[in-house]
Amino acid sequence: MACLIKDSHSFTNPYMNPVLFDVAGLKIYSYGFFIAIGALLGILYMAWQGKRELGLKFDQVNSLFLLIFVAAFVGGKVFLFFEDPSFYLAKPSKLFTGNGFVFYGSFIFAVPTMIIYFKRQSIPIYAMLDVMAVTTCLVHIFGRLGCFMAGCCHGSPTSMPWGVVFTDPACQANPKGVSLHPSQLYESMFIVIVLVVIFVIRKYRVFYGQLFLSYLMLYAVGRFVLEYWRGDVGRGFVIDQYVSHSQFIALCIFLVSLFFYVRWYNRNRLSLYKKPI
Fold first, then answer.
1. What burial class does residue 248 get, using C-beta atoms within 10 Å of its C-beta: 0-12 exposed, 13-18 middle, 19+ buried?
2. Among 39, 79, 83, 97, which residue's CB has the most CB atoms within a 10 Å radius?
């Protein structure tokens, strides 16, 4: 059993394991399984909403999702390497395990890839970015559930009754046997809230790109705060023990997104009855 709630009224979940199934030596990892669920929901939403709003073809959706997957994988691993270069130079195989990605690295690589593809396919950029805001939330929600099962992106020690103790030797939580904040669940639940807010904003949208920029700002605020409950110290700090790399990136993304939000709101307000640009 990978983990249990450390409390007199503890809830034990026997399915909370880094390896979800092991059938005749064929292992299905929890992290990959949940990522796959999120990706499936994301591609289905992208295909449905993209066709509904923009006339997107299914082969365009497939190509786009493949490009995003490759860019996100590379970006997540590149940022992971730079969190602790000496460790990964000494043990390069650790860099290519199924677990271990930096979300902002994946995101920063994926966004330019999307925009280049949109331009080459003559897909309305701002409107498609709004579709991608929801798609990203869906993938991210399930991705963090996968992190929880695998023990990566874990929280700091806590005495709260909902603290989680990871015990499975295969999980990535460190230290094991100590009650930790379930920071992965905090983030997953927060992204659900962000998704709900995005759907509300969509009802009153006044310019294309509004959903995407709203997502960036909301997630940046949440990520900055939630980092204070993270315990995987290997992620690195810009200001030791005060501002992590992810918090610094979140602050930069929030400020840039706020700038473009104000600018687009003032200069690019669109009638939703007009063709998106």
1. middle
2. 79
